[in-house]
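Morning. Coffee machine broken again, so started the prediction first thing and wrote up yesterday's gels while waiting. Chain of 385 residues, entered below exactly as on the submission form.
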Amino acid sequence: MKTVAIVGASLAGARAAQELRAQGFDGRVVLIGEEPHLPYDRPPLSKAFLAGTASRESLDLLDADDLASLDVRLGTRAERLDPAAGRLVLSDGDLAADGVILATGGRARALAGTESVAGVHVLRTLDDALALRDELVPGARVVIVGGGFIGAEVASTCSGLGLDVTVLEALPTPMARVLGPELGSICARLHGRNGVTLRCGASVAGLSTLSGRVTGVQLETGETLPADVVVAGIGMVPAVEWLDGSGLEIGNGVRTNTGLVTSLPNVVAAGDVAAYGPAETRHEHWTNATEQASVAVANLLAGQVVREYQPSGYVWSDQYAGTLQLAGHPSPGDEVRFADGGPDDESFLATYHRDGQTVAVFGFNNPRGFGRLRRQALRRPMPVG
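Came back before lunch.
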């Protein structure tokens, strides 16, 4: 194998490039990014970078030595994968490659019909964050659609900037699908404690506009909430459309086996775009992108599956003055037990139980205790799910 092309220059792509070198590949590595920016870390985009307290340089994922070992193509769009010819069709020409790593991630899901409405934002890319940050001016009324991790983090940042913030969540409890209703309720209370209005069971019917700019959010109840800025935090869509006709299996992302190898042995996938295993499991977390890169690279270089992906299920989120940490794979029906502190405390630890097994641990404002509990409770391999 002489040339490996990595399509996608976000976290999974950057880590894949580092892993290729770390695992001994000394051929040509081409890192292709559609954005014009060098690879950057996304978690600060909803927090310190959005608040203006973190610089662009602090987000860099690759150092000078990394970059010197790569052929980096920024502002280049992958348009087609042609396996028969062993090439990628890019927006600036063709590229022959012996191996391909798909790390295209996804695109933020927008509110339907709002693409040209000023004041309406999504948050996934650096440019998204810059555009939103410019509008978080004193006195702005912010309505956030979606109470998941991104929505909660943006609400936290906007609250810290002194803005009037409302979060709209369609479910009865935010983050209940990830944390379950009990711990989701605790996270929900964080909004109220910090002056943010949380409206659960709220469905958006449309937007009110004036001269092309948003002025309010219309709910299905007929109520209209005034808004100067609207942020949609309603998930993402895997970036797979360019793979049409490639012969790869596409479903909820790029289908791979448990070793992250696609139906083509010289094409692997990593990060948000990879739907692996029989259940086509796809994760959208920072840790997952990092962990998958090493497995995908190992199997690409070996030409067969020599490692299977075993997700840690680790997720963290900084909201207001608190840090949430989760490891494992909880389900909404799991029993929750508090291992240290309780739901009304400013710091606590909890475990999730199913069929007599501890399947996940959760920590709030207790990173040291979380690490200890995680090591103790999750020593054995975790089920995928």
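The chain has eight helices and 26 strands. Going to sketch it on the whiteboard this afternoon.
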